[in-house]
Amino acid sequence: MTALEFSYHLDKLSTSLRPFAMRLTKDSEAANDLLQETVLKAYTNRDKFTEGTNLKAWLYTIMKNTFITNYQRMVRRNTFIDSTDNLHYINSSGNITENMAYSSFAMRDIKEAIGKLDENYRLPFLMHFRGFKYYEIAEKLDIPIGTVKNRIHIARKDLKAMLKNYGGKL
């Protein structure tokens, strides 16, 4: 395949590569950059392409590998390496002081909410919370496993409603 033919095929396939680049990057500008870098790498390495094989698959592979390489490079660039003797300060973003008052209020509210659950829901929920498997709870309470799963689900939903003031911070 001549360079002109390769360029023609590359140009035709580049439009189908754009949606893949958008799925990878989730950003229009980054997708354009990735597409441009992919086409450039494909053109400069056209001698490595085996004629008769799937050019589109080859281009997708180049794009995916380029994206992964760029992502890894970005992660390495943003990783902080502390070479001092105080290794416990690695990636610390400042001093945080808590007096644990928030957690004691939260625990009190959680216990109170669990206490308000109907016994049919509270018992399976607490058993599951303590580490029992669904089938163990079913055997212990002599109820079907589907009922156990349903009661635990309802208990969670009810607790979430009762503890909505915490806004998902628990």
From TrEMBL:
<dbReference type="InterPro" id="IPR014284">
    <property type="entry name" value="RNA_pol_sigma-70_dom"/>
</dbReference>
<keyword id="KW-0805">Transcription regulation</keyword>
<keyword id="KW-0731">Sigma factor</keyword>
<dbReference type="GO" id="GO:0003677">
    <property type="term" value="F:DNA binding"/>
</dbReference>
<dbReference type="Pfam" id="PF08281">
    <property type="entry name" value="Sigma70_r4_2"/>
</dbReference>
<dbReference type="InterPro" id="IPR013324">
    <property type="entry name" value="RNA_pol_sigma_r3/r4-like"/>
</dbReference>
<feature type="domain" description="RNA polymerase sigma-70 region 2">
    <location>
        <begin position="17"/>
        <end position="73"/>
    </location>
</feature>
<keyword id="KW-0804">Transcription</keyword>
<dbReference type="InterPro" id="IPR036388">
    <property type="entry name" value="WH-like_DNA-bd_sf"/>
</dbReference>
<dbReference type="GO" id="GO:0016987">
    <property type="term" value="F:sigma factor activity"/>
</dbReference>
<dbReference type="Pfam" id="PF04542">
    <property type="entry name" value="Sigma70_r2"/>
</dbReference>
<comment type="similarity">
    <text>Belongs to the sigma-70 factor family. ECF subfamily.</text>
</comment>
<dbReference type="InterPro" id="IPR013325">
    <property type="entry name" value="RNA_pol_sigma_r2"/>
</dbReference>
<dbReference type="InterPro" id="IPR007627">
    <property type="entry name" value="RNA_pol_sigma70_r2"/>
</dbReference>
<dbReference type="GO" id="GO:0006352">
    <property type="term" value="P:DNA-templated transcription initiation"/>
</dbReference>
<dbReference type="InterPro" id="IPR013249">
    <property type="entry name" value="RNA_pol_sigma70_r4_t2"/>
</dbReference>
<feature type="domain" description="RNA polymerase sigma factor 70 region 4 type 2">
    <location>
        <begin position="108"/>
        <end position="159"/>
    </location>
</feature>
<dbReference type="InterPro" id="IPR039425">
    <property type="entry name" value="RNA_pol_sigma-70-like"/>
</dbReference>
<protein>
    <submittedName>
        <fullName>RNA polymerase sigma factor</fullName>
    </submittedName>
</protein>
